Every structure is written in C-alpha cells, then in structure tokens.
Amino acid sequence: MERITGLQNFGVYMNKLLTIDAFFLNEDRHMHNIAVLMNGKGDYAYCPIFDNGAGLLADTTMDCPLIGNIYILMDKDRPKTICSAFDEQLDISESLYKINLKFCFTKKDVTELLANAEEYPEEIRQRVETIIFAQMRKYPYLFLKT
C-alpha cells in the first residue's frame, strides 16, 4: 500500500483499525472495508475508519441472540480480517507497530451516554454497557491514564 499510494505508516493505520475492531468486537472487518481515498489529482489519503456496524454483538437475530450468555458470545465472536481471534490479530499488530491508539472514555462516560440513548431498549443498552465494561477490563492498557 505504501509503495502504490505513497502513504506513510500504513501499518500504524491498520493497527488503529484492528485495535478498534478488537475492543468493540467488530467481526465484519474484511478487505472490502479497508480503504484509502484518492482525489482527482491522484493523491491518496487515509480513509476514516468505517463499517463498524457489526460490533458489540449487534447481530441479535442470528449469531448473538439476546437470550445467550454474553460472555460466551463474546468469546465466540471472531474477526474476518487476518486471524481467527481478535487477541491474536491485535498481538501481531502491536508486535509490529506498537500501540498507536488510546481511548479516553470512562465507565461513567459510557453509562451516561447509554442512559441518554433512549431510542434503544434498556436490554440493548445494558448489553452494550456489559460488553464495553468487560473490554475495558480486558484491555486496560488501551486507556489514557486520567
């Protein structure tokens, strides 16, 4: 990518993308939703990270039913990008490119945000909170010290 586009540090960009996917359990990252932008002059730029809709065990109709044990569902969730496990994918990325993304939200921020997301049923909001809190415990090093 760097040779073709002239962009520097594509591995760092991928590391950030894979960090977001691992934390939010985005199982739908594949080669059709990793992109760069090109303007009319042929200049390239990094594309904002997109297509995260399959994160947070969003497929409640088939793969991640609301009645299932959330921790078992989280363990079964798999990425489609490079490896068959989020941790393995993130470990490889971090070993090559270090840690390039830190989150700066707290449990209080999550709780407040979800409390205001009244368009979603309480069951969904509680599920999202449980997932995010579990991921915060799993990946504490991804958070800025406040």
Estimated radius of gyration: 17 Å
Main sheet: which strands, in order across?
1-2
Please name the CATH topology.
Answer: Phosphatidylinositol 3-kinase Catalytic Subunit, Chain A, Domain 5
The percent range for helix content is 40-55%
Structural class comes to mainly alpha
Average pLDDT score: 96
How many structural domains? Answer: 1
CATH class division: Mainly Alpha
Portion in beta strands: under 5%
N-C termini distance: 36 Å
Annotation field: number of helices: 6
Q: What is the CATH architecture descriptor? A: Orthogonal Bundle
The tally of strands reads: 2
What is the N-to-C succession of helices and strands? HHEEHHHH
Q: Outline the low-pLDDT stretches.
A: none
Biggest pleated sheet: 2 strands, antiparallel
Q: Shape, please? A: globular
Overview of the structural elements:
- This protein is mostly helical.
- The protein has a single domain (2-142), classed as Orthogonal Bundle (Phosphatidylinositol 3-kinase Catalytic Subunit, Chain A, Domain 5), CATH 1.10.1070.
- Helices cover 44% and strands 4% of the residues.
- The protein has 6 helices and 2 strands, in the order ααββαααα.
- It has a two-stranded antiparallel sheet.
- A hairpin with a 5-residue loop joins strand 1 (36-38) and strand 2.
- Helix 2 runs antiparallel to helix 4 and helix 5 (107-115) packs antiparallel against helix 6 (122-138).
- The chain is globular, with a radius of gyration of 17 Å.
- It starts with a helix and ends in an 8-residue tail after the last helix.
- The model has no long low-confidence stretch (mean pLDDT 96).
